[in-house]
Design a protein that fits this description.
Aspartate Aminotransferase, domain 1, 2 domains, about 400 residues, Aspartate Aminotransferase, domain 2, three-stranded antiparallel sheet, single chain, alpha/beta, seven-stranded mixed sheet
């Protein structure tokens, strides 16, 4: 490109989504006839529940859904989300605090655009979802990561969070159950973060998209319920994607104090306007319906969780803690680095190189830990069919053994 064609510094400073990059390459290989097993994308392999699909089909036939809705979302859906918030977290909110967004990712983006001025800092516990720091950078902010490894259950230490705080700290992100680790923070940790944020006048952005995916009797702790006083400085982000197997419908939401919600709607009015009417009607059916379909999916995820953790820990050089939530296994592969792996005895120095080799040589798509601020790890989504999971783990183990 010519000098005058150089794109903005802002977009040049943002990294592509590593999870989508892995998923896109895997899908391209599949389109070329390659038998790829995808552990990359966080996407349930279940169909959207029938009653949700039927609601969408009916909405397509109703001319009123062929028009704009209010930018902040259908009034009926906003009301249902407010009711659902109270049902699940016992946090009472008004309809005016709800903004319906084009997926949970847009809610993350809008949160940072609303809260941050250039140079403001956001504390992000690591390992983190790959989009968090990029959304901060797109708003001119500075991501400040606080790492907690497997020895702490991937759960941040409040002293480490305090050590990262400066006079420019504007917000902290909470994600429990967490992507990429599947960790669920203890109630004491959630409460400590809430009280810390109160003491230091820090906004809390709580991403609760995996709230219903928990195992072994461990429950999700909602920060707005654990520390009620935090609600005036709390943004809760959520959506239907993971809970109802609706990733492609693109419906998320933000629940925030009314001035923040109004700001989000103002921004969205210049960004995308409203979410698709048909998708909103589908989300309404999901949010108003029972959680029975969710329970059935959770049973399957639980079975796959146990299977993949056992398979990973059986591979020489791999250690994987048992995740308590979401549908990811976050495997420590540092013992595989610095040694020849695979049938060609290829030396690998990073988990990114390891992930690339796995995709190219045995056609397994996993996401390297570099994408999550945790080099030396691989994230495996177990939101895929049981037989695919078993075959993928067989390929991985055999590939590692060939390099001995």
């Amino acid at each position: 490109m010519n000098d005058w064609q150089i794109l903005s510094e802002r977009i040049r400073g943002v990294q592509p989504s590593a999870t989508l990059a892995v998923d896109s390459k895997a899908k391209a290989m599949k389109a070329d006839g390659v038998d790829v097993i995808g552990f990359g994308a966080g996407e349930p392999n279940f169909p959207t529940p029938d009653y949700v699909v039927e609601a969408a089909a009916a909405a397509c036939r109703d001319p009123k859904n062929h028009r704009y809705t209010p930018t902040a979302g259908l009034p009926e859906l906003r009301h249902a989300i407010a009711q659902k918030t109270f049902r699940d977290s016992h946090v009472e909110v008004t309809d005016d605090q709800v903004v319906v967004t084009n997926g949970g990712k847009q809610a993350v983006y809008e949160s940072m655009q609303i809260l941050l001025d250039p140079g403001d800092e956001v504390i992000i516990p690591a390992p983190y979802w790959t989009t968090y720091p990029e959304a901060v950078r797109l708003a001119g902010g500075v991501p400040v990561t606080v790492f907690a490894g497997a020895e702490r259950g991937f759960e941040p230490d409040i002293d480490a969070i305090e050590a990262a705080r400066t006079e420019r700290t504007k917000a902290i992100i909470v994600n429990s159950p967490a992507n990429p680790t599947g960790a669920i923070w203890k109630a004491e940790t959630i409460e400590a973060v809430g009280r810390w944020a109160l003491d230091h006048h820090v906004w809390v952005v709580s991403d609760e998209i995996y709230e219903h995916l928990h195992y072994d009797g461990v429950q999700t702790t909602y920060i707005g319920a654990a520390v009620p006083q935090i609600r005036e400085q709390l943004l809760v982000l959520n959506g239907v994607a993971k809970t109802y197997a609706m990733t492609g419908w693109r419906v998320g939401w933000m629940v925030a104090p009314e001035p923040v919600a109004r700001a989000a709607a103002k921004l969205q009015g210049h960004l995308t306007s409203n979410v698709s009417n048909v998708s909103q009607r589908a989300a309404l059916a999901a949010v108003e319906g029972s959680l029975d379909a969710v329970a059935r999916m959770r049973e399957a995820f639980d079975r796959r969780r146990r299977a993949i953790v056992a398979a990973l820990n059986a591979v020489d050089g791999v250690t994987c803690p048992v995740p308590q939530g979401a549908f990811y296994a976050f495997a420590d592969v540092r013992a595989l680095l610095g040694r020849p792996v695979g049938p060609h005895d290829t030396p690998v120095e990073t988990s990114a190189q390891l992930a690339a080799l796995l995709l190219d040589e045995v056609h397994i798509a996993a996401v390297p830990g570099e994408a999550f601020g945790a080099p030396g790890y691989l994230r495996f989504s177990y939101a895929l069919a049981d037989d695919q999971l078993k075959e993928g783990m067989r390929r991985f183990a055999r590939w590692v053994e060939q390099g001995r």
